[in-house]
Amino acid sequence: GPFNSFTLFSNSGETQYNRDKLLQGQGVDTPLSETGVQQSKAVGRYLTDIKFCKVFVSNLQRAVQTAEIILRNNTHSSGMDMILEPLLRERGFGVAEGRHKEYLRNMAKAAGQSCRDFTPPGGETLDQVKQRFKNFLQVLFKQMLDEQETTGDVASSSDGHQGASAHVLVVSHGAYIRVAVRHLLEDLRCVLPAGVKMSQLLSPCPNTGVSRFVVTLSQSESGPLLSAARCLFTNRKEHLENLPPPE
């Protein structure tokens, strides 16, 4: 039968580079700042009651730390294994890594392109990032269906969805998540939440911003098939409202 995966994407917490508006991409692998730790605790408290059957995490340390703190604050997930997944790494920014965002903006301007669409030398194009995300979705879907087969009905669904369901946490990065959300909404034609504009759903994801999707999978000859997808919200950041201001 159909299988629902409630997939939560969380951006990593803040690093000092974020605060200084410096690009990290893949080459700069810095830990969370004190604010980033507090943000991760806050998102962990927000997600505290969700029982995740799988946790996929970018293998950059800011994402790994965020995921560890989320799980530490989760009622069900203590001691749960994280799957470190290079496909979830941030978009590579090539020569712009470690430089100020302004540097990228100026390069884009000189090339006559918008900053979002511009690829710095040695960096990844948006299409290359999207391809990595599509590859990740295949990994995710396969694991979800395997999980369902080994455990039978993963969790009987009490929320009105037909068939079995399970929750998955994915911890990645801002530029990557923006590409991922765009792919889910535009290419995979997710059902959108009522009354929310597409531009709002596609806005930049704040540190530890959470986006939530329900994907319905079924098994076919050629592997897992996505039979339906619904976006519940993107970039949720209410959990950050009561954080103490940074020192």
TrEMBL record:
Key words of the record: Hydrolase
Annotated substrate binding lies at R62, K101
Which GO MF terms does the UniProt record name? fructose-2,6-bisphosphate 2-phosphatase activity
| Protein name, per record | TP53 induced glycolysis regulatory phosphatase b
Segments forming a coiled coil: none
Transmembrane stretches, start-end: none
Record's GO cellular component terms:
cytosol
GO biological process: any one? Answer: regulation of pentose-phosphate shunt
Q: Which SUPFAM superfamilies match?
A: Phosphoglycerate mutase-like (SSF53254)
User: Which Gene3D superfamilies does the annotation name?
Assistant: Phosphoglycerate mutase-like
One Pfam entry for this protein is His_Phos_1
Q: Which domain of life is it from?
A: Eukaryota
